[in-house]
Amino acid sequence: MARVFVYGTLKKGQPNYKHMINTAKGLAKFQGRGRTVEKYPLVIAGKYNIPYMLNIPGTGHHVAGEIYSVDDQMLQFLDEFEGCPEMYQRTLMSIEVVEWEGKGGAGEGRATAEGVVECFVYSTTTYPPEWVGLPYHDSYDSSGKHGLSYVLRESR
């Protein structure tokens, strides 16, 4: 099992969350909520209002999201879904645990003493330079006050 941190449309309550709970695509177990240890720009870009975390450490905000434990089948699905490695690149990042599922329990999957875990994150280094000038967000919600609703693939 691998840890994956999702910050956009794959989070609970967001347009693509259905893929995270579709066991035909593999297994994804919700572990908790977290945020990036380093700051990154989270922008909403393109004609489909897609959230992108630009891989520019030290710029932007500590990005909030969810931590999942996924099997190899789900990781492979996510790579394909995220257009990896062309659109997004899957890299290891340090994620600060904000809230751990079933806290108080012992065992595998516990955060380290500092409350930081290493997770795969789909961020991008392949973006148009003008995206750096877009507004930065610390959290993503498709129906947020930014007014940039995500356009589902099936609606494009």
From TrEMBL:
<dbReference type="GO" id="GO:0061929">
    <property type="term" value="F:gamma-glutamylaminecyclotransferase activity"/>
</dbReference>
<dbReference type="GO" id="GO:0042219">
    <property type="term" value="P:modified amino acid catabolic process"/>
</dbReference>
<comment type="similarity">
    <text>Belongs to the gamma-glutamylcyclotransferase family.</text>
</comment>
<keyword id="KW-0456">Lyase</keyword>
<feature type="active site" description="Proton acceptor">
    <location>
        <position position="82"/>
    </location>
</feature>
<dbReference type="InterPro" id="IPR013024">
    <property type="entry name" value="GGCT-like"/>
</dbReference>
<feature type="domain" description="Gamma-glutamylcyclotransferase AIG2-like">
    <location>
        <begin position="4"/>
        <end position="122"/>
    </location>
</feature>
<dbReference type="Pfam" id="PF06094">
    <property type="entry name" value="GGACT"/>
</dbReference>
<comment type="function">
    <text>Catalyzes the formation of 5-oxo-L-proline from L-gamma-glutamyl-L-epsilon-lysine.</text>
</comment>
<keyword id="KW-0808">Transferase</keyword>
<dbReference type="GO" id="GO:0005829">
    <property type="term" value="C:cytosol"/>
</dbReference>
<dbReference type="InterPro" id="IPR009288">
    <property type="entry name" value="AIG2-like_dom"/>
</dbReference>
<dbReference type="InterPro" id="IPR039126">
    <property type="entry name" value="GGACT"/>
</dbReference>
<dbReference type="GO" id="GO:0016740">
    <property type="term" value="F:transferase activity"/>
</dbReference>
<dbReference type="InterPro" id="IPR036568">
    <property type="entry name" value="GGCT-like_sf"/>
</dbReference>
<protein>
    <recommendedName>
        <fullName>Gamma-glutamylaminecyclotransferase</fullName>
        <ecNumber>4.3.2.8</ecNumber>
    </recommendedName>
</protein>
